[in-house]
Design goal:
- The chain is of the alpha+beta class.
- The protein contains 24 helices and 24 strands.
- The chain is elongated.
């Protein structure tokens, strides 16, 4: 049984409790205790405030290990040479080892001389920045930075550039963490690759090109020191507007480098005496190539991968893509020159079309408005100039290089088109015009009002090799090669006749060249077709003759006989357009682009195989992995210098059989006659197997030529952007074909003369060119462009035959058989082999 506590122990416990409460009461009554408690509470509040303001959402510095800066997309041509770069931030990413040591020292002297000694924060510098901030608080002035290079990396890559004390604290904390995560060399690499240095250059390598047009390792000490001053404010030290200020700051950096022992006195004195030597701001040379071609590539990439980083990791302006294209610089230059020359020839003598653009000039500052216009010319010796004022009988001119010149009255006397008067009196200050050197002065030139497009494609692969969508993409951004919907006129006829060949006709089929009318219903009434020049026809002729002479009446008759639903189905299958089954579309009334027409002719030249044309071969990400097209595979051994004894490598092709191979070859063979004796006869003296077709639509408002060889097919049109009559004398054979001839003369200069390859099953038969009947006992005269007898291509069992007469049947005895063999006439196949074969 438990006993009760004794009175003595209870009294002792109570006395102890009272003593404890007394001590607590006395301590609480003390002001020192209260002060200490307040300090503790304030400390917790400060820690919480610091966490809330600085540490709460601080980004992880681990992201810097895998940081990938926004990089431009680089485009290469068919030979792998760089041709263009799509960039909003020009940046070339280098490793730390690729930066010249002297350049690194220049940046350290300018930005953070103790970089390799501190652990992310320069405390004396930070204290000075805090003091400067406090003294300038409320004045509206910005305090000095005081940031180390590590802090600048934290600011630029992780937390942004907000101007506040909390940002500086976050920056300092992150800098300390960065130093624990990365090496000094890695930090400098990040800094030198991403720092903004003006002229849209991010990173030192890009700035080297922007300011000096040099590779980084080609810079001298003075130029390196200039780049090192730019992080403080590129616009403050612009080499053109603030030359003196830039020189002073550059020399300050040189002095710091000398004081820190980075350079010798001799190096210092030599660099200190140099001028800045910066080039004028201009579009980088690797962005002045390609024009319309690279713009079409950009549009396709944007549709596939997006524009900015928010659109995905492979965006055009941030993803750092490497794009291999089919761009052939030689063919592009030739196509561009031929089209421009043709446009200028057509437009010459028609007067001045007015200025390219008009801009306002303020305070005699004409250079910046000219540069901002982004207008330039590279046609022959023409240049773009801005009119800066008038001095008596001459206009003063300014150029993108900063140089000036004069345009005298006598050199600007061409009439103003549609207004009267002469160009000299119509020019105004602020006009941007085209001029060309003329002695020590300049003469006015007229940018053609008429325009057009030229496309070149490789039939075997469907790769577009060249694309010119107008006179100059810096004057006319609209790409007429892919965006201008025009009526192709007679260039559609080979596709119409291909449908006829697919449905029972042959090249020797007789078609009447005579009046042809159709009833279109009560509302539209009767529609009667005519040949070019309103000819009413010349009677029955072969299909070949009708194509060579481009007879409209024969074409609509063949289309009607074939059935327009079948004709428009073939046109659609060839990628030209999707048209209603009306006969007028057989004469080219439907709209299409020159790019589509060239692709359709490439399908014909490739024995009916093809697909959508391509400008992009493949796309790689910044690490070199091919990301488009899907399932891309390289062609192993395709680039081997010599045969290795193994089977020939076969490049992967994505083409399909669009048109019957024999039909395609028949049409190519027929349209070779267009070049030999038809509407494109001007091309005959190129003296090589070539097919093609001219086109002239109603008006005429457009003139065309499309054609080529097995190596490549080209096509072009000429017309006003707002369709209007080119003049009664304008025809495809007189305007468009000569432009292609100028291009082809140089383009084919070093290429072998390859015949078109016939597919299996084609039969080559001698026929009378006029009647289409088979011929025996004589041979085609290959030296005569208009022979009476020609070789014609037929499908099996479709060639014309003559009836066998009883007297033609030979005796069947062994003796007579032997005699016949000895006297047997040469066979067609023997003749063809002696001539090198028909392929």
């Amino acid at each position: 049984m438990a006993s009760d506590p004794s009175p003595t122990s209870t009294t002792a416990t109570g006395r102890t409790s009272d003593q404890l409460r007394g001590r607590v009461a006395r301590a609480w009554a003390s002001r020192w205790t209260k002060a200490a408690l307040v300090l503790v509470v304030l400390g917790f509040i400060a820690i919480f405030a610091f966490w809330f303001a600085v540490m709460r959402d601080l980004p992880s510095v681990d992201t810097l290990r895998t940081y990938e800066p926004p990089l431009p997309t680089n485009v290469r041509g068919i030979d792998g040479a760089p041709i263009h770069s799509y960039a909003r931030e020009r940046r070339v990413e280098l490793s730390y080892a690729e930066y010249p040591p002297l350049l690194v020292k220049a940046f350290l002297a300018a930005e953070d001389k103790s970089f390799f000694e501190h652990h992310g924060v320069d405390y004396p510098g930070l204290a000075g920045a805090v003091y400067d901030y406090a003294t300038k608080l409320g004045t509206g002035k910005r305090a000095k930075g005081g940031s180390t290079i590590t802090q600048q990396v934290a600011k630029n890559l992780l937390i942004g550039n907000a101007y506040s004390p909390s940002r500086k604290l976050r920056e300092a904390v992150l800098a300390y963490k960065i130093e624990d995560t990365l090496t000094k060399e890695q930090i400098l690499e990040l800094y030198l690759n991403q720092i903004a240095l003006g002229r849209n250059a991010f990173g030192v390598e890009a700035a080297s090109h922007a300011y000096f047009d040099k590779e980084l390792d080609q810079l001298d000490l003075a130029q390196m020191a200039y780049l090192a001053i730019l992080p403080k404010g590129p616009s403050n030290y612009d080499p053109v507007r603030n030359t003196e200020k830039a020189m002073t700051r550059r020399n300050y950096v040189l002095n710091r480098m000398l004081d820190n022992g980075f350079i010798t006195r001799a190096q210092h004195d030599q660099a200190n005496a140099e001028p800045l030597g910066a080039v004028m701001r201009r579009t980088p040379k690797f962005e002045s190539v390609g024009g319309y071609f690279v713009e079409e590539v950009r549009r396709q990439l944007m549709a596939k991968f997006g524009e900015n980083a928010k659109d995905g990791p492979y965006s055009v302006y941030s993803g750092g893509l490497w794009v291999r294209t089919s761009f052939d610089a030689k063919l592009q230059d030739l196509a561009q020159q031929a089209l421009r020359d043709g446009l200028v020839r057509f437009d010459s003598g028609r007067g001045w079309n007015g200025p390219i653009r008009h801009v306002e000039i303020e305070d005699d500052n004409w250079l910046q408005p000219l540069l901002n216009s982004n207008i330039a010319l590279d046609y022959r010796d023409w240049v773009a100039a801005i009119v800066t004022g008038k001095d008596g009988n001459a206009w003063s001119l300014g150029f993108r290089t900063g140089k000036t010149g004069t345009l005298p009255r006598y050199a600007a006397q061409m009439p103003v088109r549609g207004k009267g008067g002469n160009a000299f009196g119509a020019i105004k200050t602020g006009d941007i015009i085209a001029v060309a050197p003329d002695g020590g002065e300049f003469s006015l030139r007229a940018i053609p009002k008429v325009s057009g497009a030229f496309v070149v494609e490789e039939p075997a692969s469907g790769r577009v090799l060249a694309m010119q969508g107008g006179f100059d993409d810096r004057l006319q951004a609209f790409n007429r090669a892919t965006q201008a919907m025009r009526q192709p006129g007679s260039t559609i006829k080979p596709i119409v006749y291909s449908a006829a060949l697919d449905n029972g006709m042959t090249p020797a089929s007789i078609i009447v060249d005579g009046p042809f009318c159709v009833y279109q219903g009560a509302r539209l009434g009767q529609k009667c077709f005519r040949n070019f020049g309103n000819s009413r026809g010349s009677g029955p002729h072969t299909m070949r003759w009708g194509i060579e002479q481009s007879r409209n009446l024969m074409t609509v008759r063949a289309a009607a006989q074939t059935g327009m639903p079948k004709v428009v189905a073939t046109i659609k299958k060839m990628g030209v357009g999707d048209y209603a089954p009306y006969l007028s579309y057989a004469l080219g009334a439907g709209e299409t682009t020159v790019g589509r027409m060239v692709n359709a002719y490439s399908i014909l030249a490739n024995n009916g195989k093809g697909g959508p044309p391509s400008l992009i071969d493949f796309v790689q990400d910044r690490h070199g992995k091919v990301i488009w097209p899907e399932n891309w595979r390289p062609c192993d051994r395709c680039n081997a210098p010599d045969w290795d004894g193994k089977p020939m490598p076969r490049p992967i092709t994505r083409q399909r059989q669009v048109l019957d191979a024999m039909t395609a070859y028949q049409m190519v063979h027929i349209t070779e006659g267009v070049v030999q004796r038809g509407t494109a006869v001007t091309l005959r003296d190129l003296d090589r197997p070539m097919f093609g077709k001219t086109g002239t639509n109603n008006g005429p408002t457009d003139v065309w030529f499309v054609g080529g060889t097995p190596q490549f097919v080209g096509g072009l049109y000429i017309g006003f952007d707002t369709p209007k009559n080119l003049g009664g004398a304008a025809q495809g054979g007189t305007l468009a074909a000569p432009i292609f001839k100028q291009f082809a003369t140089k383009a084919y200069e070093d290429l072998p003369k390859l015949p078109f390859r016939a597919p299996a099953g084609i039969r080559m038969v001698r026929i009378d060119r006029a009647s289409g009947r088979p011929v025996y006992g004589t041979w085609p005269d290959t030296s005569d462009p208009k022979p009476a007898v020609i070789w014609e291509a037929f499908k099996p069992e479709s060639e014309p035959r003559r009836a066998a007469r009883r007297s033609d049947v030979a005796p069947t005895t062994a003796t007579t058989t032997t005699a016949v063999k000895k006297a047997e006439a040469p066979r067609d196949s023997d003749f063809l082999q002696r001539q090198g074969g028909i392929y």
